[in-house]
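Lecture 7 notes: from sequence to structure.

We start with a single chain of 378 residues. Read the sequence below before looking at the structure.
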Amino acid sequence: MKRLLKQSAFCLFLLVSGCSTPIKDVRNIQQPLDQNLLAKSTANSDVNSNVSYATRVVQQVGPAVVRIDSTRIVAISPNPVIERFFPGQLPTQEEVQDGLGSGFITTTNGLIFTNAHVVADADKVTVLLKDGRSFQGEVVGADSVTDVAVVKIEAAELPVVKLGNSDNLMPGEPAIAIGNPLGLDNSVTQGIISATQRSVAALGVPAERVDFIQTDAAINPGNSGGPLLNAQGEVIGMNTAIIEGAQGLGFAIPINTAQRIAEQLIEKGRVDHPYIGIQMAQLSPELREKINQSNVGITITQDRGIIILGVVRNSPASRAKMRPGDIIESINNVAIQDIKQVQQQVEATNIGETMQITINRDGSRQQITLQPEALPTK
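Now the structure, written as tokens:
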């Protein structure tokens, strides 16, 4: 499970770039109805309905949630102190590292969605089903930018999840997380959707292109890659991150994003993210004052907008003659108010397609035309 630490800086490189607690099963007792009992039952119908919906969802989806164990061999450098006396003469040691995560089966023949960090650089992947069966997993592809991966096991007639729609989620909706936190297989937690479109920049992970779903359903290490579900038992997100030291703050990749990335991984084993290569920040009176008082040779006259602070060498933005101090006003005729909109417009443009960017440079409006390239791997 990733732990996210808040950062104070707001600039980002645009990569524009077992044991769950069982829920008691309340069954009808075949005896004459007591009117007082009936009235009490009616008064508590909301509580009972909440329990029954959670139980129903777990029974429906639980068999399709898997545990993923990964093993990787890591080279360990010799002791640096001893290495000083025997340079190049000490053998490199190897260490076996074990990883634990979750995933969910999306096809009856064994395609599984999980987090990229669960299986990254793994030498061996083992998938354990709820019914006790174990399979060797093959990593079809993993995308570290969005933290989505696809694993394949050789099996047939497997239980599968139903994928929902994460575009229309609203805060306050019920949310259920199923996974293997801390190695406790098939654990279930319940809560609500706390927020949607949570900016990754605010969470201190500017390299990832995901607007998270925030939930207070308990998520812990080992939940990574497991499903976040709605009241209908549909997967609406992939649990992926927590903020270290906080409680009730879990984050999931929207399932529409995860599915889009997974489809590319299945098709070609990789994902090509559009990239233009700029560093930018949200303008404010304080930032304007800092820039104007610095010795960078830029004078800013406005308090709002998205200012370019840096341009990556040999990037599409560099070849299009964009430069620090330019203020982005619109992209493809869409007015730009915040950094997220810039990222969304770049992400919506296919690699090689033309982008029209309107900038304000020293008080003069100019048109910039460029074509995004694939995000460099390094």
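Confidence is low (pLDDT under 50) at residues 5-49. Keep this in mind for problem set 3.
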